[in-house]
């Protein structure tokens, strides 16, 4: 029997709505709605409430009180914001540069390249929790291997408290984050470099193009989409990362290694002030959304694949 529409005309096969894909997607969408959607809405609502677990009977709508208290009543916020800027830009910048250098070094075949690739990519296989514990032991001021090696080769004469010094704590955590993050850039850039046709470089060499000019005029344009994507993703990941900080320093000493996201965690589970923590989380989400929009517009991401 031929299906007909409301006006009596036969319905063509391409007009029939196929509901099968929606049934397959339904479990995933439902789980995302439960696991992500509800907590997001709940945290946005909580940002406007006086929600402290220490005062369970005193929960009420507080308006913008939590947002105002972040900038007016908290003396640690200026230092924490500065730490966050250092944490993101130094960490991502070093990962980007080292990852690019390693990718360029591993691009051409040489004896033992597979072994070197395995060594370079190995840190990416570790969890941040494991890396944090490893670096905490290595940088221990009393029995850490870093102090031992530096003293053996004569670079220092006395032990350094890497994680106990307000001047070195943040740098120490950044070193750990760089170590675990470099393989991500190296893997992505190596894959992008290997996808560039070799005849492009051959033609450029015939035309008298040097290696340096070829890097900026050929290599960079070809891998620009990968660079934009990796920088955007890694910046967001590092901005939100707190496990390395909490494991190695706990944000100390004296908030010297605290970032806005780790401070948000401290507010929620340290002082039990979930309202202020939720307000910080909402601000972080807005900042990252603005950053992503501005970054993609300024880099002309949609046009970056055209050569």
Beta percentage is under 5%
What would you call the quaternary organization?
single chain
CATH homologous superfamily name of the domain at 77-257? MetI-like
* Sheet with most strands: strand arrangement: 1-2
Give structural attributes.
307 residues; mainly alpha; MetI-like fold; 2 strands
Can you give a write-up of this model?
With 307 residues, the chain is mainly α. It has twelve helices and two strands; from the N terminus they run αββααααααααααα. α11 packs antiparallel against α12 (274-298). 25% of the residues are buried. The mean pLDDT is 88.
Layout of helices and strands:
Elements: H1 20-46, E1 49-50, E2 60-61, H2 65-72, H3 77-107, H4 113-121, H5 128-138, H6 145-152, H7 169-194, H8 198-206, H9 211-240, H10 243-248, H11 260-269, H12 274-298
Antiparallel strand pairs: 1-2
Helix pairs in contact: 1-12, 2-12, 3-7, 3-9, 5-7, 7-9, 11-12
């Amino acid at each position: 029997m031929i299906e007909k529409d409301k006006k009596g005309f036969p319905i063509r096969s391409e007009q029939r709505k196929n509901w099968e894909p929606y049934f397959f997607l339904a479990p995933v969408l439902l789980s995302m709605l439960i696991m992500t959607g509800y907590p997001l809405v709940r945290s946005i609502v909580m940002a406007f409430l006086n929600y402290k677990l220490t005062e369970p009977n005193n929960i009420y709508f507080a308006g913008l009180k939590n947002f105002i208290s972040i900038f007016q009543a908290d003396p640690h916020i200026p230092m924490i914001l500065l730490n966050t800027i250092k944490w993101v830009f130094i960490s991502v910048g070093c990962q980007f540069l080292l990852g690019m250098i390693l990718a360029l070094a591993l691009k051409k075949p040489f004896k033992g390249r597979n072994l070197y690739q395995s060594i370079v990519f190995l840190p990416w296989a570790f969890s941040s929790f494991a890396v944090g514990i490893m670096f905490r032991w290595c940088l221990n001021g009393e029995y850490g291997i870093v102090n031992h090696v530096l003293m053996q080769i004569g670079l220092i004469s006395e032990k350094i408290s890497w994680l106990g010094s307000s001047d070195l704590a943040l740098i120490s955590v950044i070193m750990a984050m760089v170590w675990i993050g470099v393989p991500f850039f190296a893997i992505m850039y190596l894959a992008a470099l290997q996808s560039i046709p070799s005849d492009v470089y051959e033609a450029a060499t015939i035309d008298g193009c040097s290696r340096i000019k070829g890097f900026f005029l050929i290599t960079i344009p070809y891998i620009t989409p990968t660079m934009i994507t990796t920088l955007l993703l890694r910046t967001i990941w590092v901005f939100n990362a707190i496990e390395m900080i909490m494991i190695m320093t706990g944000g100390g000493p004296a908030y010297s290694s605290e970032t806005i996201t780790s401070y948000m965690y401290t507010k929620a589970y340290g002082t039990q002030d979930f309202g202020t923590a939720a307000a910080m989380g909402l601000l972080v989400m807005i900042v990252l959304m603005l950053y992503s929009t501005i970054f993609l517009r300024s880099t002309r991401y949609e046009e970056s694949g055209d050569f």
